[in-house]
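Figure S7 source data.
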Amino acid sequence: MNNEQVMTCRSCEGTTFASGKVSNGHAKLMPLGMTFSTGSSLIYTFCKECGEVSSIKVKDPGKF
Ligand SMILES: [Zn+2]
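Tokens for the predicted zinc ion complex:
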């Protein structure tokens, strides 16, 4: 989870980013038409300068 690519914020051109995970029920991404026991957290990568989200990843795409 630490592949340090050089990214540049498209909003402020900052180069410092942080990642956060959305989980705990509320913002899980669920496959359509499947049971509640599946689904995946989303990982957001955002600029630490201005908060622009540069990337949203599904943590467990294999569940879909
Ligand atoms: Zn920025």
